[in-house]
């Protein structure tokens, strides 16, 4: 315990804890939305699509992260458009944008003379090397997400649940869907910069799977996901310290262990 | 009878692709206090007509005008025929019902009385003990009742029901029609159903849809009129029923 | 197939090798570099012209043990059975992870691949490359040998500069994100501390150790390779309040880059 | 034209064409199945999950590809199990196995002493560097897939369409689903070694999206997908040679251009 | 009457989780040539009972035995109440119908006569021109007819229909019941419906399900029996109907 407290004295560790909390909140909110809508892979899709933006920015000598953000938003819009207007299945649309973005990135990297940086490393971070700038950006995003979900909770819930009916209630659901997808895209790009794709993919799904054991209510799912997500990050960080193993992997194991234990417990409990 | 028009459909043609028209040149007005039963054979275009009215399907031709200028302003309650929602979606029964109250307000929060209203409605439908269940765990008839609650909770000006008696048991069906008659005091109702027996006893007017729309300004129909207007009809199976045809038909 | 490729066409893995080979062979030789992009395996994608080049050449000179070669060389060989693969890392005293005994088998420990970043080991690479070229192009022995002398002299010059200037800093440490200068550190008596320990994701303990150590040693800067996002090192630089300095171990112009690096080392050690 | 024919004289190019044909067939069959079932990301999931196997094989000093294949099959079974028995949404299950496999891989890489090679590169190939061994393996797999889909076409179709009903027809649908998923897993791992993940993701989805413009019939979708897939690979390979650009990226662009042109043409044509 | 049992249910309890039992201690035998109408209120457990018989839901207790040893051998036709299939799935109408002929043969290919049979059935249902349509482009009633074709195409020994009259128009409903009576010559039928009016005229026996199962060995039921057995009934709304209670009830 003493040791853990002393660990917090290191800003990299306390930053990791803070980033973990913020990512948990973002993953709790955005993750519950994408899990409920069964489009978990929008996270991978948007990240990889934004590789195109990084490539272009690199080619033009601009800030790569700016390029990534622009492409992320564009690809989110592209996914929504393909689904709603071009009648492409949503998961196919995500895969298409995923590969298109990557293809664009590869071409630009290829066209830029000299030894190109490993551009993916601009996208994929590690929770232990989170910078203060990252944390500030994340904080802003967290505030945006909390405000968004608080103000528009019902609208978001109902559009996700039954878009056609919500349309008959007098909402322009198409535009709302576009806006939601832009915010989701930004959340994903930011969080992946902080957590890396692998950890993010699990923070966006395993806590929701855990929450699903207890509840089938959207709002409760958000809260339970955030709680388990943060618990997983904390336990994982400390565990990875004690076993001296990479923290991302240990966080994932921790979450999966939580899920298994709870699933089995509930099952035994229910059968009695 | 209050003849204020709520919705006016003029020369509308509709379909899912321009080369296959389902509804041809429809003219149709819904007035306040209308209770119109829409009948017609399977695949006749009844659901398509409702989707056009609701703005879910853009007509290929013609014009739809609403009482207020934009559709967003007309308060419509809707019960779809087939609900394509994802059964796994994490939502509670009561929240589904409450969605009927959104009324175009994106910031909508529900007050206590509103929640109470939803609970009361669910109780009326015999579902009070399921109010906090996830929607996925209901039986077919229970789910249908939930969608019905959602359609009527907001006291809409126009209630559009696409085969509301699907799945529901006879006990409830009787209550349902009773309820609709009451509701009609306050709102116009468009009811699609194959339950001809009931239609004559609850609706005020009948329209039959089979590519074209035949509007009968009466709830009494006969074999003769059906033949005249080529309404391809169920009623025929019920034998002769007295009917009256309006001049301006 | 029994097609005849271009005998005067040599393929190498990385850019510093390209410069080196070009300096050794006559001007009409073509030298192709395979890794011109970021080495993310998910995005490594040669163009057909590059593959045609591989197909067209007779000689592939490996730098030795980089991941790219481990994954791709076999494929190149199968594409072009005439392709002779030679290793320019022979005779170098490799740095390995400690061998570990696991019950019935022994882990040799992977070889640290960045042999070109130290002038001393690079001298060996150059000599090896010269030998390979002479062996493959005996008719050009004279040209190659004479080019070699010039090249070796300039490298010896860099080496002595390093030995001389770094002499005062023996035992001192520098901090880097990816361990690109392991051989350099060994050869000139420095200590390299990398955040990516052995090229692997760092653990909490490791970062903690680095920070403690860096404080103790009063480290003044952290190196980051241009092909990695600087952000990765930012947290450490903030924690220790030190600068981030960009380095380019894969630059084609070896001499300039190494001199540049020496200046950087001098200012931070 | 002359030049193209001379290009075919290069074994790398003719190999690429053959690999393209085989991948098109595999992607046409397996891709139509996963697109119809809306589980496109099983390809990414299984590839990344098999990273765990590579890590373990590396740690134990075994053949990495063997490890990958074993983990691919295990994760395919894991995905099926989570979906059918543990009531996890299918896309979430894929994401969870994806991150779990990666986490296992990372841990084993970490535990193996010495400098770590980039293990992912063992999984991701490129269509231009296909070896004869690859082609033979692919050929075997193609034969297996064609035989499987020919013999069991109806069963596969009906299980994909309506599993519950097919169960009432007297089939043990659970076991069939497990077997299908094992074959899909093997197809994915093999094809990714040949085509790389990015190209594979698009070969598994874009041709199907193109086919969907013309047909809504499973069998026709397979044939049309194969045709467009191969057409795309061919055009892309030749195009990438002329523009001297990475072929994967050009193939993806070609396919997306096909899709857009056909979509627009059909739309204009239908409105008339 | 042929009293060869096809399915025998003994002391079966069932539900979706062990702590919430939907069906309690059900005993029930289906004989050859049976035509059993299953009625009961929404949420009573009718669909659950069918799922148990079909082997789609494992009973929590009790035993189900089939004529042949394993379920796989009994040829059952099934029309689900709510079809949860994905509407986007690329499959043609005729292929959906043909799936009914699979009959446990994994290598099944369809012969010409089999395809013709499917086309004939579709024609009977008025759907011949939709045979090559994707399933997604049908109206509710059309889809229901397709599922009906799928259920009966294989001349099953036991036909299980969960509210087959859902969405279908009255014209067709009449034909449907006529058809069922014919089919009953060759097969046992289990029919869930809320359409009490019809039930008495087509089925031979009635069972009502509301947590428990009450089996009436007759198609005539009265208010009295309903009350006695606490069948929570629709029929009540239809007024007095003569009925007969069996001793061994
Ligand atoms: N998947 C499910 N999970 C949990 N509970 C369920 C599920 N499906 C149904 N139930 C519950 O089981 C009970 C019986 O449902 P069932 O579908 O058998 O009713 P039913 O008699 O067919 O009703 P209906 O006439 O409305 O179709 C209901 O109370 C319902 O809430
Ligand atoms: N999404 C769709 N795409 C293409 N065609 C469709 C679609 N939905 C319905 N149709 C076709 O449009 C016609 C009218 O369908 P609609 O659903 O309006 O019929 P309906 O009168 O409501 O029938 P039912 O009584 O069966 O519900 C049918 O022939 C149907 O095949
Ligand atoms: Mg309809
Ligand atoms: Mg039911
Ligand atoms: Zn390196």
UniProtKB/TrEMBL annotation, chains A, D:
Membrane topology: Multi-pass membrane protein
Superkingdom, taxonomy of origin: Bacteria
Keywords: Membrane, Transmembrane, Transmembrane helix, Transport
Coiled-coil parts of chain: none
Identification of the protein by name: Metal ABC transporter permease
PANTHER family, per database record: ABC-TRANSPORTER METAL-BINDING PROTEIN (PTHR30477), METAL TRANSPORT SYSTEM MEMBRANE PROTEIN CT_417-RELATED (PTHR30477:SF18)
Signal peptide location: none
GO BP, one annotated term: transmembrane transport
Organism whose genome encodes this protein: Plebeiibacterium sediminum
Family classification: Belongs to the ABC-3 integral membrane protein family.
Entry keyword annotation includes Membrane: yes
One CC-aspect GO term: ATP-binding cassette (ABC) transporter complex
InterPro entries: ABC_BtuC-like, ABC_TroCD
Protein location: Cell membrane; Membrane
Transmembrane segments annotated in the record for this chain: 12-34, 39-59, 65-83, 95-115, 135-157, 221-243, 249-269
Record SUPFAM superfamilies: ABC transporter involved in vitamin B12 uptake, BtuC
From TrEMBL, chains B, E:
A molecular function (GO) term: ATP binding
Residue stretches making up the ABC transporter domain: 7-238
Annotated InterPro entries: AAA+_ATPase, ABC_transporter-like_ATP-bd, Metal_Ion_Import_ABC, P-loop_NTPase
Short name of one Pfam family: ABC_tran
UniProt keywords, alphabetically: ATP-binding, Nucleotide-binding, Transport
Keyword presence, Iron-sulfur: no
Keyword Signal: no
Stretches of the chain forming a coiled coil according to its record: none
Family statement drawn from the similarity comment of this UniProt entry: Belongs to the ABC transporter superfamily.
PANTHER family found in the cross-reference section: METAL TRANSPORT SYSTEM ATP-BINDING PROTEIN TM_0124-RELATED (PTHR42734)
Protein name: ATP-binding cassette domain-containing protein
Naturally occurring in which organism (per UniProt): Plebeiibacterium sediminum
